[in-house]
Amino acid sequence: MSALPGSAEGTAVTGLDSSAVEVHGDLPPLTETTRAECREIMARYPVPRSALLPMLHLVQSVQGYVSPEGVALCAQELGLTKAEVGAVATFYTMFKRRPTGRHLVSVCTNTLCAVLGGQKIYDEVAAELGVHHDETTADGTITLEHAECLAACDYAPVVTVDYEFYDQQDVAAALELVAALRRGEKPDPTRGAPLTDFRGVSRQLAGFSQHADAAAAQAAVDGPSAGVPTLRGVRLAAERGEAAPAMPAAETAAPAEAGTPDRTPTGDGGTPGAQAADAEVAAAGNPAERSGAEQNHPDRPEPAGRAAADRDAPAPDADGQAQSGSGTSVQREV
Ligand code: FES
């Protein structure tokens, strides 16, 4: 039985009321390279089917949406049914059921953004573009969607383009933003990495670099991060002498086993990242900032839950290959 996302059968199987997935004959093909990259993603996980979400992002990066062909490829590689893959693909709004434009413009219309003008922004942008939710402009440049909370309420009203943030927008700014996108420009987000496009960011979400070279990737990493509104709570806590309680994971993490890297912060800055984190801890001006810096330190102890998951992973044999019979096979999980 066919049970692709959006099909009547799929809806019956998954219980999700989903619109029909569209079939297009002029899509870029999913090649053997795509299949090899799917397997590369699968190899990152102790249980292969844990790779499904990034694999869906990968096929979306090639074809602009999760096509029936993409569902079939993921199902085939993971040993799942198309219905199982479809149930996942139709649950998450980041997976699209019809081809997406070059850019995905998401306007938050959730409570805080809405009362500060988000709904007005959405209405005006929709009228300007001549499209409604989940529709693409005739020139293929923009797919518009209204979004639930984009997790940036302190910057409301928020618009994202390909998941990059454009904070504290108003109608005029949002209209200029979409006009620039239609002219082929890529205005700098107000924080985070430089804007690319929907397929590029989908590839990044699959765990592959979307940048042409290492310098471009580093520039994206070095993009501006959180600004004044997000830090306001930290400053208020510092003024009041408040600090976050210590994470319980440090006390309950499993003891390191032989051959397991010791992740306890040493303060000797073994890597450039650890050196920067050491400096950040040392420079903390109050308990709240120090607590935050310690939580972000790459050498802090692994959380207890992660350690438990690691213990379930197949033990490597003498050749470094995962052994069977460890109880973590796909067959048992499926
Ligand atoms: S309500 Fe818009 S980002 Fe949270």
UniProtKB/TrEMBL annotation:
Keywords assigned by UniProt, alphabetized: 2Fe-2S, Iron, Iron-sulfur, Metal-binding
Alphabetized SUPFAM superfamilies for the sequence: Thioredoxin-like (SSF52833)
Obligatory cofactor(s): [2Fe-2S] cluster
Region (Disordered): 242-334
UniProt GO molecular function: 2 iron, 2 sulfur cluster binding; metal ion binding; NADH dehydrogenase activity
Biased composition (Basic and acidic residues): 296-314
UniProt xrefs under Gene3D superfamilies: Glutaredoxin (3.40.30.10), NADH-quinone oxidoreductase subunit E (1.10.10.1590)
Biased composition (Low complexity): 243-266, 273-288
Compositional bias (Polar residues): 324-334
InterPro entries: NuoE_dom, NuoE_N, Thioredoxin-like_sf
Stated family: Belongs to the complex I 24 kDa subunit family.
Name this polypeptide is given: Unannotated protein
Source organism (scientific name): freshwater metagenome
Biological classification of the source: unclassified sequences, metagenomes, ecological metagenomes
